[in-house]
Sequence to fold (397 residues):
Amino acid sequence: MKKNINTHTRLFYLLVVVLVAIATSCSHEDDIIPSGDDGNGARIVRTEHLASSHMMAYHFTYPSTDPYGNPTTLSGTITMSDDLHEGDLAEGLMLYNHFTIYRADQCPSNGGLSEQALIVGSRLITISPDYYGFGITEAQPQAYCISSANARAAVDALIEGRKLLEQMGFRWKDNLFNAGYSQGGQTTVAVLREVSQHHPDIHFTCSFAGGGSYDLPATYHRFVVIDRSAMPSTVASVMLSYNHFKGLNIPREKMFVEPLLSHIDQWILSKLYTRAEIDSLVGTNDISAFVSSDMMDFNTPYAQQLLEALDSDNLCKGWTPRSDEHLILVHHTLDGAVPAENTSNLAAFMQQQGVQNVEVVMDDFGSYFGMPAHETGAMIFVNTTKEWISQHLGISW
Fold:
């Protein structure tokens, strides 16, 4: 059902825009602090005070696995209000899963903390993974939309981050949230799959997933049929990521055409550009203008290879969610970057699996501040999450 957007909510949306701008440019002080090794390899490597956001950030590394399942070290960040001290009782923890990023300094441990700056007023402590390919693994290709790998990175960050917090003397109430938008929305749902399969001791109070690519095969089908995407960089990145990490070995010239073909390393894989900058460099929203005819035909061997790989990580099939999960899904019906059928398909799957507490907030929300549907959906997601948590915690946030 479409929600009425009152004046107070519009002001909050404006505040979101302002805070995001502030958080990405705020002054801070860095300090190197002792390792804090917990005996299993997790350690605080840097702490900083982001004065304009009234936020402390503890950047840490921790043991996990790479997308192939091999042991590796990943990185992430713990954030909290700067007036929250050792011994104080925080409202709880939030596992925050970041959205699509490409530039190296956009990951949490390198300063990408704009969303955490919005959360800090709740007095929740956030734990945010960089995912494989960012932070300490920046030299490696990012596992873009490989939801299984990103979920493992997120759950391991949560486990190791909690250990470090306990060692530092922090305490929190028994509230654990799991949230993310866009690629972060996909990761949020993949985290539910990961804990259902491997971590019976982890239970989330509520999970919030917005605008996520839960059903990548359906997304691929839709984009090929309509020959259009609001974010061409994400289409190319999914193809590159699955080709690399799933070992498909499809030659690039069988996936892309010029001018993108000759500029993949520079534009997408260099980690020098933002998503918007890459979209501008690609220069078109018509998929057939940068994707090869082989990949635009579902019947070719190359397209079939990709579809099978995408289906192997499909969140709308092949796993058993816990029946008592509480999941809130948000999606703009006109989303041109991540089609809304992703949320419709996931909600149907969850219901088929017997998950009763699934709330869907999905409608044509129009456009706020001239933003495209995907970005407008992000604002609806932020406000929905904020309202639910505020009511649950009984706080004014």
User: Anything to note?
Assistant: The longest strand covers residues 55-65. The first helix runs from residue 7 to 23. DSSP finds eleven helices and twelve strands in the chain.
